[in-house]
Amino acid sequence: MTSSSFEGEDDTVLPFAVEALDCRGRAVRLGPAIDTILSRHGYPDAVSRALAEAAALTVLLGASLKLQGRFQLQTKSDGPVEMMVVDFEAPDRIRATARFDRDRLAAMGPGARTGELLGHGILALTIDQGTERSRYQGVVALEGQGLEEAAHQYFRQSEQIPTRVRLAVAEQFEDGRRAYRGGGLMVQFLPTSPERMRQADLHPGDAPEGHSVLTPASADEDDAWREAKALLDTVEDHELIDPAVSSERLLYRLFHERGVRVFNAQKVREACRCSRERIMRMMRQFSPDDRRHMIGDNGRIEITCEFCSQRYDLDPAAVEAEIAPPAGP
Question: Going by CATH, does the domain composed of 12-194+222-270 fall within 3.20.20.140?
């Protein structure tokens, strides 16, 4: 097993390959980046955990964009957590936000799973590499399942690549305060032969009494992929987020008998895309009457970024002067 830069550090994505099993994947560790995002908003614990899971999944998927582009995960559903949005902007910037119903959340009590918090709705995964032709969106129905299973559905129906995902979130105490951590591991089966990569069809249903039937998994799955999944299923949540268990060490535990090769780790940082310039571009999209209705009792236009909570205090007269078209000759 080869070493990589940023070995054992938080806020990194580590690509790897298990060539004996025709598998490739990525491991992600989020520490200060996700804790900064969550602490700015002061979300209830259940919301923080769901959003941290979504962030880990977004980084796992978005890190495939090497140089430029944007990967976005968005949920919209009827559960107490009504919406989550996570942006990953290549090569390393992440931001996230959530909307929730505080009363409905309290009524669920502690210990609710992510699937219960989301309820029924959709999960949209969008890849945008800057042009209309390079924009792609896959949509998965949310029906009470968690984000791991939703990711599996996405790859079955959209990418048609055998994929297994594991996600975990936890808290630890640092300097007298709670801090959130997130982690994830994704393995994909990518043999050179398309026939070996073919995924199993739907389950054939119950066999008549007295008869047996081979399930698609037992009949069609490649032995290498079955082994890789079995190994990944042995991972415990704490191994994905424990600071004492680096991604390199975890991968060695899982695949040392088969041999695992890691590549250069990639750093991840919390960074919002908002700026005064972007705010002004947004203001231009509103009519003068709409902009007048934005003026508060203090005579100012105040806008708060949903992602980073940055407040922009604008002088309405200065806004109109900046937006107004130049006078003619």
Answer: no
| Domain pair 12-194+222-270 / 276-323, same fold | no
Phi, psi torsion values for 195, nearest 5 degrees: -65, -35
> Which stretch of DSSP H or E encloses residue 61?
helix 45-62
The whole model's pTM is what? Answer: 0.85
Q: How many angstroms separate the Cα of 120 from the Cα of each of 115, 138, 230?
A: 9, 17, 30
Long-range CB pairs of 225-228 (<8 Å, 24+ gap) are 225/21, 225/22, 225/23, 225/162, 225/189, 227/21, 227/258, 228/18, 228/21, 228/23, 228/164, 228/187, 228/189
Pick from 147, 171, 149, 43: which is nearest to 105 by CA? 43
Q: Which CATH class is domain 276-323?
A: alpha beta
Q: Is 99 helix (H, G, I), strand (E, B) or coil?
A: strand
Task: Give the helix/strand (H/E) hosting 55.
Answer: helix 45-62
Percent of the chain with pLDDT over 90: 66
pLDDT in tens, 49-78: 999 999 999 999 999 887 678 999 999 999
H or E element, residue 77: strand 70-77
